[in-house]
């Protein structure tokens, strides 16, 4: 056994004894209220320490009353609660095995955790079959434990692991919808009850022919905190702005439930005395959606990627797609073909309730990817692909995403759509992503909507990160979609969305502004977000796997990481540059369907038609200078390949430090 350079024994501590007895990181004498057990463990470094943890209520893990004063008979003291953690064996980096890095006896650790009176093991995520157990990658196939404990206990457990154990907060994940941006000068100041002005405004939302629009989200912005609400059955909502007058109102935002365009008015003329009526435009009133949804159409994003020019027999046959999101409403006429899924949130009680989508987000993504090719509604990229809907929202956490990816490994899914992200990097999740990749599962991930650095897991080097773009003349000027417009508009109307995250991790961009797709129960809505851009690339990836000649040949027909990397390579190579933004915002550019499936090569690609100033409506003055004063010749091969090589060179980030905000560093316990 090699000698420990820090002194003491080189033998790792016995985690099973330490954890079972509730010890902290060093040799400890622990008294556990209600258990009456006392034990002594040994320290990895040989240093002596003594610690006593007194836990009120035994296994509840609450701090003793004196830690926060005395509540007496008036109530209960506030103390730290148990939190949920992900616990997994850590795969050592290359070369550490020779330094005495020993593998962890994870089964023994699991038993020790289950026997501990102050740790509650709530779930275990592991291989579902022999097949998925053989899909062994980083982190092995021993599984992941989900346990509730105090932060102090988690810190002790992490320290006892000596680098062999991951102990992370089981962070909550978020769907990649852009949050509503407050108008400039709005602050978070809370008005006091000092008898100041109060603006009470009744907002009445109506649709085509004056029909009231129920369940529309309405927000009114003043100079302080905004007021928000949802319209009732009569299409009305009353909003109160404290400390405001009609002259200080800065914005009015309306997001309909379905079938209409959103609405945004800056500096609106709001009345205190009578209802303020907002008349929404129907989606079908827009020229590009004329006759919709009675007549089938392609979304503007699908046409921008030339899906409408694809031969009719290219439909994604034989490819399996998973959409890890909020479920998919199979009640929708365009989504009857989705017949498989897994409700990760309710796997113990109702694992088959994946087809109930209370948010509509997963249904919207599913429509872009695989809406049926019928006479009405929209057509997806791969209508004949086998789609699995994994329900992770509302409330999904990292441990549940790991479980959903385990489902994908077991079902031999080819492409996974992840329109989601977290606040922190998760090494446990990264190990599962690597394991999925080694099993031939390609993860396509939304870059994020904060307008800052690419979020995780899109920042992982083992996924394909997708940013969002928009296009002029594809939405009304008075819709909220217009607020996503930035200055990077090219001669053809393409622009990078304000909300879209950026950085060297962005592989490609895709349409993510005013994307019309399915929502429950059988309706349509136009939404924004990298969440909406990602399904475009997921659908394209499915078509590529199903129809590109490379994946019919022996070299890439076998599932594995090489197949995934080849898929990502083809998608990047199919892209052409769009917008005036640099490549940290668009990656290699907008992928092209005909190139990605192998029907055309880049030199034969036909450019889209430029947006003429006279046909760009009220948006034209904003970009007329770019179009007229700076005549740019469209070049489908205009991507600067030398610069792209720098972007994807592992040394690029170090050379350009400070130019792009970087993801937060890894924090194993995340507090």
Quick structural gist:
The protein is of the alpha/beta class.
**CATH domain fold name of the largest domain:** Rossmann fold
Strand content: 15-25%
What's the gyration radius in Å?
Answer: 27 Å
The CATH homologous superfamily of the largest domain is termed Peptidase S8/S53 domain
| Fraction of residues in H or I helices | 10-25%
CATH hierarchy class name of the largest domain: Alpha Beta
The number of domains is 3
The total of helices stands at 16
Helix/strand/pairing class, anyone? Answer: alpha/beta
Task: Give the second-level CATH assignment, the architecture of the largest domain.
Answer: 3-Layer(aba) Sandwich
Lay out the secondary structure.
Layout (H helix, E strand, L loop, with lengths): L14 H6 L62 E7 L16 H10 L4 E6 L4 H5 L9 E6 L1 H10 L4 E5 L4 E2 L22 E9 L10 E5 L5 E4 L5 E7 L8 E5 L7 E4 L9 E4 L20 H5 L15 E6 L14 E4 L17 H10 L15 E6 L6 H13 L4 E4 L1 E2 L5 H12 L3 E5 L17 E8 L22 E3 L9 E6 L3 E5 L3 E5 L2 H18 L6 H4 L3 H13 L9 H4 L6 H4 L23 H10 L11 H7 L4 H4 L16
Parallel strand pairs: 6-12, 13-15, 13-16, 14-15, 16-18, 18-19, 19-21
Antiparallel strand pairs: 1-3, 1-4, 2-3, 5-17, 6-9, 7-8, 7-10, 10-11, 19-20, 22-23
Family: Belongs to the peptidase S8 family.
GO molecular function, one term: serine-type endopeptidase activity
Organism: Duganella alba
